[in-house]
Amino acid sequence: MYLEGEAYFEVAKDAKKPFTVQFMSSSVTVLGTSFNVNAYKGKKQSEVVLVEGSVRLSDKYQKEVLMKPDNLVVVSEGRASRIKRVRAKDYTAWINGLLILHNEPLMSVFERLNRFYDIPIVVAPAIQTEIVDGKLDLRLSLSELVRMISVVVPIDCQIIDGTYYISPKRQQ
């Protein structure tokens, strides 16, 4: 199976029929597990997060990484990074309509919201690196989420022809 985008998998163990997910220049071979792969076209890196069980990640350079629960591996330019310990449930919360943010740049937050809502969002360069922490309820409208973010980060939003333009808050 080839993946472009983000998907959560729950795979039953079957030694006779291993399940493999290919993405960008890497692959994950499943050994009976649940895991999340984030591999969007145009992004420079992809992520694999293991929720339970085990998987073997192989990168473009034939480096293999055996992952355990709560492990994250980032693949950038075809090369797998070292394993990082994370709270895997935070990476799969989108399945339940939540977006959990830990020290995430504002540009990344709006890229994720753009993919989820399929609404164009333009973020001014001056605020793209602002850091955001928190939890967003994806069952709310994009306008409501932008309003909630503006309580934490001083931003303004204009909607012109269906595109959201996010800029630094104007001084009053």
Sum this structure up briefly:
The chain is of the alpha+beta class. Helices cover 16% and strands 49% of the residues.
Chart the SSEs and their pairings:
Elements: E1 5-11, E2 19-23, E3 26-39, E4 45-58, E5 64-67, E6 71-76, E7 79-80, E8 84-85, H1 88-91, E9 98-105, H2 106-117, E10 121-123, E11 131-137, H3 142-152, E12 155-160, E13 163-168
Describe this structure in words.
It is a single chain. The chain is an alpha+beta fold and 172 residues long. The chain contains three helices and 13 strands; from the N terminus they run E-E-E-E-E-E-E-E-H-E-H-E-E-H-E-E. The strands form three sheets. Strands 1, 2, 3, 4, 5, 6, 7 and 8 form an eight-stranded antiparallel β-sheet that branches. Strands 10-13-12 form a three-stranded mixed β-sheet, with helices on one face. Strands 9-11 form a two-stranded antiparallel ribbon. The longest helix has 12 residues.
- The low-pLDDT segments are none
Question: In sequence order, what are the helices and strands, one letter per element?
Answer: EEEEEEEEHEHEEHEE
**3D shape:** elongated
Q: End-to-end distance, in Å?
A: 53 Å
| Tally of helical runs | 3
Major β-sheet profile: 8 strands, antiparallel
Q: How much strand?
A: over 45%
Mean pLDDT across the residues is 90
This entry's quaternary arrangement is single chain
Helix content: 10-25%
Number of strands: 13
| Rg from Cα | 18 Å
**Would you tell me the structural class of the helices and strands?**
alpha+beta
